[in-house]
Amino acid sequence: MRITSSENFRKMDNYSIENIGIPSIVLMENAALKIVSNIDLQLNNRFVIVCGKGNNGGDGLAVARHLHCLNKEVEVFIIEKSKDGTKDFKINYNILKNMNLNIKTIRDYEDLDYLRESIMKSDMVLDAIFGIGLVEK
């Protein structure tokens, strides 16, 4: 297995989008499908997916949709922040809303308590908060 840096991943994404013409939402969809294909779906039925509002969060929402379509129990939590979500995050968010998936927003400590309870009941937790675009301030 080869390992690369976040900068190289960013360059590959940009090249795919700008030079090849692959829409970013297609890259997100492919990432979600690859994630789901690597999950042992015989052993895992209950999922908690915690999402930020960036493209990594959009990946998480797409994963949630695919798992839901496979009749898996999925709980989605979105970390509330002041900024709006990215374009592709919003697309996947609206798809889940149209599918009537229950999406919970984490705003305060009570929400964290509910998240903790959900995690304890789950078979698998997916972290879709930060990706390669994380900027430390």
From TrEMBL:
Residues 9-137 form the YjeF N-terminal domain. The keyword Nucleotide-binding does not apply. It holds the Pfam family YjeF_N. SUPFAM superfamilies: YjeF N-terminal domain-like (SSF64153). The keyword Transferase applies. One of its GO terms (molecular function) is kinase activity. Keywords: Kinase, Transferase. InterPro entries: YjeF_N_dom, YjeF_N_dom_sf. Transmembrane segments: none annotated. This is Carbohydrate kinase family protein. It comes from Clostridium botulinum CFSAN001627.
